[in-house]
Design brief:
Elements: E1 4-7, H1 17-26, E2 32-37, H2 49-58, E3 63-68, H3 76-82, E4 86-90, H4 97-106, E5 110-115, E6 133-137, H5 152-165, E7 171-175, H6 183-189, E8 193-196, H7 198-201, H8 207-218
Parallel strand pairs: 1-8, 2-3, 3-4, 4-5, 5-6, 6-7, 7-8
Helix pairs in contact: 2-3
Bound molecules: D-xylitol-5-phosphate and zinc ion.
Length: 219
């Protein structure tokens, strides 16, 4: 079984960011997920490139930057320079999405696209060779700790079918409400990359235990 666990530092205790990331790394994290929110596309405001730069100083793990911002094309250079390995842009924020994905790749960063729960999978049909990863939001973006939307299981299945039909090698990532109760069905539906915030950083037995619980649920 091959998959990626990407802890989201949105749910980390920022007083101890270095230590919290180190615990995630020691606990078996594969990537570190950084949620960038602008208070415009989504209600919340979070991190900028400076946080990516700080995370890069703590770990050499791939940094996965999820841009929940308007006009993301204005900022991808700064995130690439800060150390992002993967940059994900929302379909809903990009009128020229193909160009935006291409410019991410031109910077030597792996391009990914993300769609909100209400955006149809069919929208991706023209693009399946332009991104390395498709992120299916399994909550409406903006906050950690929300409940998984059950309608998204079928959406993951339909995404997998579209990728197969169009001979795309892209992988499917999910983000929002991922925990020990939802992760297995998402894997069975075709997801291979799992972002989790509160299930990891909010686990009562600690960060490493949170990651272990997800591995165990996938067994
Ligand atoms: C939500 C963010 C997520 C968030 C997930 O808009 O994109 O990455 O951290 O948090 P949980 O896992 O708590 O739902
Ligand atoms: Zn995210």
């Amino acid at each position: 079984m091959s998959y990626i666990i990407a802890p989201s530092i949105l749910s980390a205790d920022l007083r101890y960011l270095e230590d919290q990331i180190q615990q995630a790394v020691d606990g078996g994290a594969d990537w570190i997920h950084v949620d960038v929110m602008d208070g415009s596309f989504v209600p919340n405001i979070t991190f900028g490139p400076n946080i990516v730069k700080a995370v890069r100083k703590v770990t050499q793990l791939p940094i996965d930057v999820h841009l929940m911002i308007v006009n993301p094309e204005r900022h991808i250079d700064a995130f690439a320079e800060a150390g992002a390995n993967h940059i994900t842009v929302h379909y809903e924020t990009c009128p020229h999405i193909q160009r935006t994905l291409e410019s991410i790749r031109d910077l030597g960063v792996s391009p990914a696209i993300v769609i909100n729960p209400g955006t149809p999978v069919s929208t991706l049909r023209e693009l399946t060779h332009d991104f390395d990863k498709i992120l299916i939001m399994t909550v409406n973006p903006g906050f950690g700790g929300q409940s998984f939307l059950p309608g998204m299981y079928d959406k993951i299945r339909r995404t997998k079918a579209l990728l197969e039909e169009t001979n795309s090698q892209a992988t499917i990532q999910i983000d929002g409400g991922v925990d020990k109760d939802t992760i297995k069905a998402c894997y069975q539906a075709g997801a291979r990359n799992f972002v989790a915030g509160s299930a990891i950083f909010g686990h009562q037995a600690g960060i490493a235990a949170g990651i272990t619980a997800l591995h165990e649920a996938l067994r």
